[in-house]
């Protein structure tokens, strides 16, 4: 059997707890996928912590796959080569490996489902991308 993991895992909201994690303005509810897949994939629900605002620092994640589905609320992000993006409940977005990005703001009720592979990945602070200047047109 060549399955990602060999363990059945179930996570009920009623018996799960949110904890601190990568960002101080978020709390995370582990869904047990990292354990079930023996570290190949991590999945968690992320929600905004009351009275905590994002710091807006540029960073990147050293991972192979990262996608997010917004469950509630909204958030504004900025991505290298893309610009500012607003995501809201029902939005699914994929972040390419190592893309520089930052969060600018979010609603008080923000909740997102995030899936990342591998399950253990590094996050690095990054310099802001150099803004491309619009080319001057010749007359």
Basic shape: globular
The helix-strand sequence is EHEEEEEEEEE
CATH class: Mainly Beta
**What name does the CATH topology carry?**
Jelly Rolls
Strand portion, in percent? Answer: 35-45%
Give the overall average pLDDT: 86
Structural class: mainly beta
Number of domains: 1
Query: Which strands sit side by side, in order, in the main sheet?
Result: 1-2-9-4-7
CATH superfamily: Jelly Rolls
Kindly, what is the distance between the CA atoms of the first and last residues, rounded to a whole number of angstroms? 67 Å
Describe the secondary structure blueprint for this structure.
Layout: E1 26-30, H1 33-36, E2 42-48, E3 59-62, E4 65-72, E5 74-79, E6 83-88, E7 92-94, E8 101-106, E9 111-117, E10 122-125
Antiparallel strand pairs: 1-2, 2-9, 3-10, 4-7, 4-9, 5-6, 5-8
Please provide a written account of the structure.
This protein is mostly beta strands and 139 residues long. The model has no long low-confidence stretch (mean pLDDT 86). The protein has one helix at residues 33-36; strands at residues 26-30, 42-48, 59-62, 65-72, 74-79, 83-88, 92-94, 101-106, 111-117, 122-125. Strand 5 (74-79) and strand 6 (83-88) form a beta hairpin. It contains one helix and ten strands, in the order βαβββββββββ. It is globular, with a radius of gyration of 17 Å. The protein has one domain (18-125): Sandwich (Jelly Rolls), CATH 2.60.120.10.
In short:
This protein is an all-beta fold. The chain has one helix at 33-36; strands spanning 26-30, 42-48, 59-62, 65-72, 74-79, 83-88, 92-94, 101-106, 111-117, 122-125. It has one domain (18-125): Jelly Rolls.
């Amino acid at each position: 059997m060549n399955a990602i993991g060999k363990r059945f895992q179930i996570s009920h909201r009623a018996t799960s707890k949110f904890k601190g994690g990568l960002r101080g303005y978020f709390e995370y509810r582990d869904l047990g996928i990292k354990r079930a897949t023996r570290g190949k994939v991590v999945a968690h629900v992320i929600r905004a912590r009351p009275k905590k605002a994002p710091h807006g620092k540029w960073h990147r994640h050293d991972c192979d796959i990262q996608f997010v589905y917004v469950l509630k609320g909204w958030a504004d992000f900025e991505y290298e080569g893309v610009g500012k993006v607003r995501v809201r409940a029902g939005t699914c977005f994929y972040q390419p490996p190592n893309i520089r990005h930052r969060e600018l703001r979010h609603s008080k009720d923000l909740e997102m489902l995030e899936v990342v592979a591998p399950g253990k990945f590094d996050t690095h602070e990054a310099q802001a991308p150099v803004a491309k200047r619009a080319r001057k047109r010749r007359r």
